[in-house]
Write a structure and sequence with these properties.
By secondary structure, the protein is α/β, with parallel strands linked by helices. It contains twelve helices and 22 strands. The structure holds aspartic acid and magnesium ion. The site of aspartic acid (ASP) has 12 residues, from loops. The site of magnesium ion has 3 residues, from loops.
Length: about 425
């Protein structure tokens, strides 16, 4: 049986008809290599942003259902155009949207998860020798409602398709050459990583590195789908491979530095210090579908018998969070302030090499201290340390950390043994 390669082209890679022709060439080349090819595409250029802008001009709170109806149209345009471009080169191709295939999701508008993908139609068309072009980002619920997977969700569509089809590899074509040690716009000397583990990539993606949709990396890890991020415009460059840590040789404690400017800090002051309070607060937020990132509970004040609980949420979720918390005041019995701060940034260092290596955290804190940067919150995982700082300090922090962990030359990780062909 032929190998299946899934390719995904992001918005910048299909931004105009010239770029669509280029994407068509890349897909055809893979077909010429003797593989079956499934291509997943995003909406052209800034189409999705433009659609969001129009919706906001008409309504301050457009309903999630209608937003999904609207935003899912962007991908519909690019699949048809890319398919025409492939056909124009003399190759057989067909486009499908998520509804035609059966990319089944939960019934949560604007951030649905994929539950299942029906593969019959895909397999039938591949067997007929066609290149298949699929709309990313969108899905359909059991009762026929159109959903979307959240901004940037086409990456996740591609990985989920790769896993459902047992593909050899999923190639994410984008406008950058791969995954870098940090954002090259902040640190021009940032270097491209040859490879990075799923866990590191996941932490980097959650920490604000915008290369991949975090859920796409989770899915790739879960189903062990080798992922490659590479440039649509320089296909000589092999890009960055994302794979299991067992396949990598690690040299440095830190692989990458990321900053996330899209979070806000919420502080709930003077909540009673007794069992069940945190449970009630966070289950309410979970119920409202609000994800919480860093959480700190202060040491209880003896006299008042109260705590402060601080946490971060996405900036978009601030109004929802505040009203959810307000609604809990009488139930939990607190009357303290709910403070919000939108001018913060989360700066993180990530590396599988920090496991069992003492002193990494102190190096990070010292580097920030040397720059006079105040740390507002700290959180850690096995392979990540994040500090919340003022937004205006974010770039300075990233530069200092990139420097202190010596990331300017690519010796963070090398690949061991045999890997999927690149
Ligand atoms: N078009 C969608 C967005 O702009 C999905 C994607 O590009 O991955 O967020
Ligand atoms: Mg994207």
């Amino acid at each position: 049986m032929k190998k299946i390669i899934v390719q995904k082209f992001g918005g910048t890679s299909v931004a105009d008809t010239e770029k669509i022709k280029n994407a068509a060439k890349i897909a055809i080349k893979e077909k010429e290599n003797g593989n079956d090819v499934v291509v997943v595409v995003s909406a052209m250029g800034h189409t999705t942003d433009f659609l969001v802008k129009m919706a906001k001009e008409l309504s301050s709170h457009p309903s999630d259902r209608e937003m999904d109806m609207l935003l899912s149209t962007g991908e519909g345009v690019s699949i048809a155009l890319l398919t025409m471009a492939i056909q124009a080169q003399g190759y057989d191709a067909v486009s499908f949207n998520a509804m035609q295939i059966g990319i089944m999701t939960e019934k949560i508008h604007s951030k649905a998860r994929i539950i299942d993908i029906h593969t019959e139609k895909l397999r039938k068309n591949l067997n007929e020798g066609k290149i298949i072009v699929v709309a990313g980002f969108q899905g359909i619920t059991e009762d026929g409602e159109i959903t979307t997977l959240g901004r940037g969700g086409s990456d996740t569509s591609a990985v989920a398709l790769a896993s459902a089809l047992n593909a050899e590899r999923c190639d994410i074509y984008t406008d950058v050459e791969g995954v870098y040690t940090t954002d090259p716009r902040i640190v021009p000397k940032a270097s491209k990583l040859k490879s990075v583990s799923y866990d590191e990539m996941l932490e980097l993606a959650h920490a604000g590195a915008n290369v991949l949709h975090p859920r796409s990396v989770e899915t790739a890890k879960h189903y062990n789908v080798p992922l490659r991020v590479r440039s649509s415009f320089n296909t000589d460059n092999e890009g960055t491979l994302i794979l299991g840590v067992e396949k990598m040789e690690i040299y440095k404690p830190v692989t990458g530095v990321a900053s996330d400017l899209s979070q806000a800090r919420i502080v709930v002051c003077d909540v009673p210090d007794k069992p069940g309070v945190a449970a009630k607060l966070f289950s309410k937020l979970a119920h409202e579908n609000i994800s919480v990132d860093m959480i700190i509970q202060s040491y209880a004040r003896k006299v008042s018998n109260t705590n402060d609980i601080a946490f971060t949420v996405n900036l978009d979720d601030v109004p929802g969070t505040v009203s959810a918390l307000e609604s809990l005041k009488s139930e939990i019995g607190f009357n303290g302030e709910i403070q919000t701060n939108n001018d913060i940034a989360k700066v993180s260092i990530v590396g599988a090499g920090m496991i069992d290596r003492p002193g990494v955290a102190s190096m990070m804190f010292e580097a920030l201290a040397e720059q006079g940067i105040n740390i507002k919150m700290i959180s850690t995982s096995e392979i990540k340390i994040s500090c919340l700082v003022d937004k205006s300090d974010a770039d300075k922090a990233v530069k200092a950390l990139h420097n202190v962990f010596e990331l300017a030359c690519d010796k963070t990780a090398e690949v061991k043994g045999d890997l999927p062909d690149v």
